[in-house]
Write a structure and sequence with these properties.
single chain, 384 residues, alpha/beta, Aspartate Aminotransferase, domain 1, Aspartate Aminotransferase, domain 2, 2 domains, 13 strands, 40% helix, 15% strand, binds 4'-deoxy-4'-aminopyridoxal-5'-phosphate, binds glutamine
């Protein structure tokens, strides 16, 4: 018998990620790509020089499974500096191939069949497939435009005997909102007498605006004890293509995480890890990031506020959402397609981050771009 080609898909309803679709469309139409989130400028030359340096020194073989010790120590120091919390580099920090892998492995390591996972929508699109492939069940709470706030009393009603995990993300992609200390305290109280884990996606940890702080789950004692915190150097160092991230979790959780990690990845690119570790000797590299992106946010917003788009305040991340209902009644999916093809600016439809494709006529722009790109795109958007 020959192979029939019939396979039962493990993810029958999963489509190609919107980031691939929009970046491809932007390239096809030579549009300015403000869709997928990545900088259009280089990382610091000193950082890439360090990679070359460590490669030439011969740091080219497998790194230790949980990561180069020097880098884990630097992550520990960075977290202490910013949040005043201690993570033991030996037992509580693991270097991963980007935050995407950290998320996927955390879901694989902790979810059992029929476990329920609370997801707060709009939600970054890699959470759901990782839940489904592990035979767990998503339970949704919807935040709505324009405020995208969380009513924790309503979230509490979603908790059942089967709830195993809640996923939070702050600063939040796609909305640019931040969880406040009030949110974190309510979350902490809500979980107090449960065994529910928190997966805290903190990849934009160093990008907050208007003097606001990032309320990491690590800052709250009870949350810290049940949290797997995921972050990424891609955002912090303008190196999304390097795919180096890290995961923080108490020792008992890190042990379980590493059981899966050692067979899914084993270890992450050695010269990159050494270079990042050395680069982080200067905390200014991450401490200056908010001001750097705040100037870009303000520049891009100066165009949006003059346009027929209605920007929704961005308090963190390098994204800003905008309501286009004053321009068109098209679905957001159709609207970004037309925007890309006719006006040569690509964006992301926020409905892509809702399971039921909830369309509030809101699209997301990435402003991690050079001033020149932002001026060009801004002028186009103002003319629509
Ligand atoms: N989480 C969020 C909220 C993100 O925006 C991203 C995007 N890049 C990731 C996770 C994945 O990070 P990485 O590129 O390091 O895999
Ligand atoms: N995090 C990036 C974004 O939100 C995209 C990452 C990806 O393409 N997977 O645009």
């Amino acid at each position: 018998m020959t192979f029939s080609g019939n396979i039962a898909s493990k993810l029958p309803a999963t489509e190609t990620t919107i980031f691939t679709i929009m970046s491809r469309l932007a390239a096809e139409h030579q549009a300015i790509n403000l869709s997928q989130g990545f900088p259009d400028f280089s990382c610091q030359p000193a950082l890439s020089a360090l990679v070359a340096h460590f490669m030439s020194l011969g740091y080219n073989q497998y790194a230790p499974m949980p990561g180069v010790a020097y880098l884990r120590e630097q992550v520990s120091a960075m977290r202490k500096e910013i949040h005043g919390v201690e993570y033991n580099p030996e037992t509580e920090i693991t270097i991963t191939a980007g935050a995407t892998q950290g998320i996927y492995i955390a879901l694989s390591a902790f979810l059992h069949e029929n476990d329920e996972v609370i997801i707060i929508e709009p939600a970054y699109d890699s959470y759901l497939p990782g839940i489904l492939i592990n035979k767990a069940k998503p339970v949704y709470y919807q935040m709505l435009a324009p405020d995208y706030t969380i009513d924790w009393k309503q979230v509490m009603k979603l908790i059942t005997q089967r709830t195993r995990m809640i996923i939070i993300n702050t600063p939040h992609n796609p909305t640019g909102t931040l969880l406040t200390s009030g949110d974190m305290q309510q979350l902490e109280r809500m979980l107090k007498d449960t065994d529910i884990l928190v997966l805290s996606d903190e990849v934009y940890e160093h990008i907050t605006y208007d003097g606001q702080v990032h309320e990491s789950a690590s800052r709250y004692t009870d949350l810290r004890s049940r949290s797997i915190v995921v972050s990424s150097f891609g955002k912090t160092l303008h190196t999304t293509g390097w795919k180096v991230g890290y995961v923080l979790a108490p020792e008992n959780l890190s042990n379980e995480f590493r059981k899966v990690f050692q067979y899914a990845q084993f270890s992450v690119s050695t010269p990159m890890q050494w270079a990042i570790a050395q680069f982080l000797e200067d905390p200014a590299q991450y401490k200056g990031l908010s001001a750097f992106y705040e100037a870009k946010r303000d520049l891009f917003n100066s165009y949006l506020t003059r346009s027929r788009f209605k920007p929704i305040p961005s308090r963190g991340t390098y994204f800003v959402c905008a309501d286009y209902s004053g321009i068109s009644r098209m679905s957001d999916r159709k609207f970004v397609e037309r925007l890309t093809k006719d006006h040569k600016v690509a964006a992301i439809p926020v409905s892509a981050f809702y399971k039921n494709k909830h369309d509030q006529k809101v699209i997301r722009f990435c402003f991690a771009k050079s001033e020149e790109t932002l001026h060009k795109a801004g002028e186009i958007l103002c003319a629509i």
